[in-house]
Specification:
alpha+beta; four-stranded antiparallel β-sheet; 51% strand; single chain; 8 strands
């Protein structure tokens, strides 16, 4: 009887150990597992971002500029447009240092529930002040150009296909206002 009990215990332990070993998979089973893993990973979404930058004066749009770029969601790199002019500026040591003047746009995208799109956009806009825009105290003796810089960092929740004003900035030297409008379109 003792021998039968010992044999049953050994048989039970052996069965338990065999059950804990990983099952051998066939190549067909492995390819199905790989396909399931691929399908569960988030797929990058691609969107065309149409950006309109315009000035508003007395309620009317004037001087509009349009830009577009393709952005990628789910941790993709930032979409970027840079249109600049390198401008030489004299330093105290009578050497030239170059600065960029113009426009730089950076946008990062992330898909949200309900078909919405989260966008973080940075805009850096710099332009030269015309001599007629300078106050009287600056017009005499000024030899270097005066540069005006506007920086914005905005977060917006976009509905694809609908434009949204993401920034609005008053011009400090006039009654004009600059606005930045973004519209995202899903690409297939």
């Amino acid at each position: 009887m003792k021998m039968v009990t010992n044999a049953l215990i050994v048989l039970t332990l052996a069965t338990t150990m065999l059950a804990q070993q990983p099952a051998k998979t066939t190549p067909d089973q492995q390819s199905r597992k790989d396909q399931e893993n691929t399908e569960s990973k988030p797929i990058d979404g691609f969107y065309k971002l149409s950006i309109a930058m315009y000035e508003v004066e007395n309620g009317k749009r004037i001087n509009q500029r349009d830009y577009s770029m393709i952005g990628r969601t789910n941790g993709g790199p930032t979409a970027r447009i840079s249109v600049n002019t390198r401008v030489p500026v004299a330093t105290d040591t009578k050497q030239l240092q170059y600065i960029d003047a113009g426009l730089t746009l950076n946008c990062s995208l992330k898909e949200q529930a309900g078909g919405k799109l989260q966008a973080q956009c940075d805009a850096n806009i710099s332009n030269f002040v015309r001599p007629d825009q300078l106050p009287e105290s600056h017009t005499t003796g000024v030899t270097a150009p005066v540069l005006r810089i506007t920086n914005t960092t905005t977060w917006a929740l976009l509905t694809p296909g609908k434009p949204v004003v993401i920034a609005s900035v008053d011009d400090v030297n006039s009654a004009k206002r600059m606005q930045i409008e973004v519209m995202a379109t899903k690409l297939d």
